[in-house]
Amino acid sequence: MIRPVEERYRTVRELFPELRTEVFNGRIVVNDTGTWQHNTILAQVLFQLMPVVAERGWEIWPNITIFLGAEADRYVPDLTVVPQRPVMESDEAVRGDSTLLLVDVVAAGGAYDDHVVKPLGYAPAGVPLYLVIDPFQRLVKLYSEPGRDGYTRETVEPVGAPLTLPAPWDHPLDTGGLLCV
């Protein structure tokens, strides 16, 4: 008998708690920890977001599952920004519509999931902003204005071009400073 995906997902999370475990279209994906380049890009993002996050009392979580619905996939972005007292589905999962920004740095082999699969799961769950930093294509992509069928707005900029996070952020990102590796 084949166990449901949710049960297998929990088992894998228990076996490998130090690794990021996600579910994409019914397949369980266990991701290694990031490379030094991946982590350096994340550090650059953190340096730029921290002043706004600290000023507004928000929090940045580096390893939390995004709850997209009872029968939906389970994604773990590289960074999740949440307001004070976000709505949690469980100790390990925050509701998508209770986030302020999700950030992923594309890793080798993960481009399709980050650029296509995740936005299609995040938008119907009400994730307001999803930022994808792609060091391989040297671009940043911001998904905003979520709807039932996906995001209605995608802003794509080459590294070095200005990108401003919309409300509630109203904060510019120095995209050239993100890929200094």
UniProtKB/TrEMBL annotation:
SUPFAM superfamilies: Restriction endonuclease-like. Pfam families: Uma2. Residues 16-165 form the Putative restriction endonuclease domain. InterPro entries: Nuclease_put_TT1808, Restrct_endonuc-II-like, Uma2. It comes from the Bacteria. PANTHER family: SLL1072 PROTEIN, SLR1083 PROTEIN. This is Putative restriction endonuclease domain-containing protein.
